[in-house]
């Protein structure tokens, strides 16, 4: 005896699968290959690096990644205002404001009024000592990350990442014209 409900359910499932496969083929839009899509690969690497660094800095130095970025920016350029600090540290205004408040409470930074509505910030001696300790660990982590690369490959990587960063800064909200990938596919 044939179970009519089971047969009906199987037919409906087959029909839905066929419809979804047909719909996917009909769209004929480009399919992004995750292992070849540069923005996705860069994001994945950045997420892994940031996640690992954040856990490391919190565990060993009780500061987060935002505070580390601020320490680095202030060590390179003391007595800068928040807008410049945001740019140099690559952080948004709210993150910088929260981090600076915590860092000031911890005695890592101090701020002073400037000739306007803004405040300038610099590392204290305690903040500079913390920066120097973490910098040694950060350099060791970088060496570990790049251990399988030759010096020439490291230079090439830095050059490519610098060029990629400049190109990313130049992206606009305008719709892009034909891409090298779509042009190549069209010529095949």
UniProtKB/TrEMBL annotation:
Q: Where is the region Disordered?
A: 1-25
Pfam families listed in its UniProt record: MarR_2
Lineage, top-rank taxon, reads Bacteria
HTH marR-type domain mapped to chain residues: 35-166
**PROSITE patterns under this entry?**
HTH_MARR_2
Task: Output the InterPro entries linked to this UniProt entry.
Answer: HTH_MarR-typ (IPR000835), Metal_resp_HTH_trans_reg (IPR052067), WH-like_DNA-bd_sf (IPR036388), WH_DNA-bd_sf (IPR036390)
UniProt entry keywords in alphabetical sequence: DNA-binding, Transcription, Transcription regulation
Kindly list the residue ranges recorded as spanning the membrane.
none
Q: Gene3D superfamilies, from UniProt?
A: Winged helix-like DNA-binding domain superfamily/Winged helix DNA-binding domain
Protein name in UniProt: MarR family transcriptional regulator
Q: Which organism is it from?
A: Acidisoma silvae
Lineage, uppermost ranks = Bacteria, Pseudomonadati, Pseudomonadota, Alphaproteobacteria, Acetobacterales
